[in-house]
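Yippee domain-containing protein: structure, please.
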Amino acid sequence: MSVLPWICRACRSTNAVHRSKTIRMIQHRSIASNSRYFQVSEEIRQAISDKKPVVALESTIYTHGFPYPENLALASRLESLVRINGAVPATIGILEGVARVGLGADELMRLISQPGSPDLLKVSRRDLGFVLGLKNAEGRPLNGGTTVSGTMVLAHMAGIKIFGTGGLGGVHRGAEQTMDVSADLTELGRTPVAVISSGCKSFLDIPKTLEYLETQGVAVATFADGRTGNIDFPAFYTRESGVRSPMVLPDEEAAAHVIMAQRSLGLQSGLHFANPIPEQHSVAFEVMEKAIDHALEAALTAGAVGNAATPYILAKIKEITGSKSVEANTALVEANVVRAAKVAVALQRLEQSQSVGRNHHQKASSSTITGPGSANYTADGIPTSLASKAEQHQSLQSSNLPSIAQSTPTPTASHSPASSPSEDAVKHGSLGVNDTMVFSMMQEYKKQFQNSVDDLKNDLSSPDQPSDIFVAGSLAVDLACDFNPRSGSDLQSPELQTSNPAQIVQSLGGVGHNVARAAHLMGAKVRLCSAIADDLSGKAALEALSFAEMSTAGIKSLSSSDGNRTAQYVAINDKHKDLVLAMADMSMLEKPQTLTQTLETFWLPQLQSTKPSHLVLDGNWSPEYLSLWLSSAPKSTTITFEPVSKAKSIAPFTLPNILKTYPNPSIHLTTPNTHELSSMHAAAKNNHLFDREDWWEVIDSLGIPHSGARTQISRLTSSKLVDEGIPQMSIQLLPFIPCILTKLGKEGVLLTQILPAGDERLGSGEDAAYILSRNLGGGGGDVVGGVYMRLFPAVEEVAEEDVTRLIETLTAILSPLSPYIPLPQPSPSRTMPFPSLPSPPNLFPTYLVPSNPFRRRRQSSIDTTFSSLTVSSTAASSPENDSFLSGHASHLRCARCLSDLALSSQIISKGFTGRHGRAYLVAPSSAAALPNTHTHKPVPRQLVTGAHTVGDISCAHCGSVLGWKYIHAEEESQRYKVGKFILETKRVCRSSTWESEDEVRRKRRRRSSSSSSVVLPPPQEEEEVEFDSDDEDECEQLFLGKWTQESAREIRRAKASKDFVGG
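Here you go.
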């Protein structure tokens, strides 16, 4: 009877392994997308994905422990210490009703700029739902600093294993009456995170705290820190507490081994590693005990209980001990995060070494042929699912059923070699009662497992499964044959007309499959629509898709007896894996009769019934079938076209009756390389698609001037790309495909896109630099907002054999990201409140004047367009909205909400440095404050140029911290800055006015009238000159105190003469 419980545990452990794998897979996918309540920064997500060491940091120490700006300085120092020691810091807090893991510098500033504020809460596990779900009396989301408990919860959700903090909560003295026990202790008992601190706060009951941790199953140890013998559990401010530590760790590597062992067992309790305060900062035990006694009495008198007790007691201790406790607190938390970073790095090394060992073992025992075959079968040809169960069955037999092996008869005529020893034992009755029950249970378990596998396959093949993305394209079996010459051979390539030794790697391929696989790994519900034959390759491909848990509902299996063959691609490579010869059999997608019937009766009904949000079509489809896919797609479906090759990329442009234009395009997104883009452009031109009326209507609405935009395009991309015509061709194809991502190889990716009217990027300071043009009423009605163009540089170089897969991965990732939903523009009330100056003309920026004309339809339409634009823009620039800016060349705005802040002419220096890099020194007309800003309370601050008193300034509308105002300077030489403002270049953006056509023509007449002279004559009527802060010569004159209107005129005349000579 003792066997039965053991077997039940085995079954449970097997199910647990399956559940744990499922949980890990779900967690891995969920981390790729954030929710409205929980967000992990991009840096932290990338670090976790790359298996880099990450250390969690709490935020209560900043919001409730230190005053501003000391808390900001401490936060910056702690993150720097983590990075210096090889790990990635993840500061955790609640900002604007969202739990954030990995607070950025700006987010941290907004969170901790007002410590102790009643609106800034202290958040433990129990408070998370309230803080995230509720708002304050003014209807704004809540902010909060996370305690040890709250930080552990969020760190574990993000997948972070190590957490460094100052001190741990614990059992309060007198807890037998108050029952005051910190939630940190219970959290350690149920959240598998390793917490490194200086022990619990010294005013707590340390013996009871350790007893409680033991009850919760928490592993507790103390770092020896160079000591030997009996070592005490630290008491926060002091290294000794009189209470012996349960365990002692010699170094960080030992801690990493403990963490690894605990995680391997799947234990869900945490670990606490106590790190004693550095000896030079340790406070004498007797001194601290006296201060604690006084602080406890004061807290009792003041009635400070619950979560208010700890901050009150710490503040009282600080008051009693003076600066000693503050210095000790700072020193210990710095030592703890350093220790945490080292433990995280040691754990990463340990995990990598074990991973390498596992991979080596797997590699040594795998077959030479890899891919779908070896992914689903062992080296002996046994399916992996059955092999794993067989291993479990054999282990059960060897450890618990010795009588089976002993009583198994030698095979005879009546005993087939194919029958297992256990079956023979059952037939001959040689098993005992318990053993027979065990064997029956194992047989039943095997049957249930096979049923669950069958159910999974049925679910994956069911057409009723919901799918967000349909991918219609090729599925092929790829064979890469890498020449592997025998030792001593000097051959570099395989010999012809004979057999060659090689390493053959088998894998699933095809553009459609690669796109679908990448989307599946990103967590999307994807369905691949393709065809295979019921031959050996087709069955292997289908099995591989099921093994990868991808839907097979769109895979049509055709009879091989009708001559159908699963698509295959064979690449023969030389010794260096360079291609020598390739053979492709893609006849599967080239049989019209078979494909037509399959498309009409199998794929299109699924597409129309499922109504996916995205449809990806690869270029392997002939124009005939591509036309059927495009015309059958639901109206709400976003369609992406992957060109595949130069020859196949032109297919959409051979369908003039199917290819529609924006705002109802047939194709929404495409991802060609430069060669495919050229072929697509040539096909559109040769088929006269650029002469269509609907194409011209969209082109006219883009806001590109009749003379083109070469200068601005060159600034957004590069002169090389403009000379090759890449961005120009993209723009001309936009009416048919409104979002084009051109792959430029080592140069990166060029995004060219039509922005719908109302798109938030049209009003975003961060995106202002990438707006090529804006629709100012010249066509397209309220549909087209402008053109967005941005060059994304390559992040890293990859091997050539990986380029194709990466390209198809890009298509899969970007297909669901095509943004065509109009978003509200910024409120017009956020302009500067200065009245009644005349409205400036507003047609197009002068810097968009090109040297390469952009072809327009008719001259009359040009004049009409410019006329309508001039009237439209003048009407739009009402005094209520743009009055402050009228008559000025450029101005500064908040980069976040575009609130007006200052004129560019008010910049008196560009050579200052702020918190985040370069900054402007601005002297407004009123020294009291900048418009649309809020000045915070003055604080002393040590800057590079000496001691100053400054007040931070933030945007009155969005709250973004923009810089500071100089209130007082200690040194006489720095007092010229008093009353002036620092605006950080990363927090503001510059906006220029627009020139009318009359102004452009006036400048041209002025230039042509002076063509007989090298130096342009000055205008007869001297106009008032405004300081140009973009001109380096004028800035230099201003800094020297020599700038005048006449000197500015001379500078501009000289430059105009130079431009004239050069032109």
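Notes: The two ends are 100 Å apart (CA to CA).
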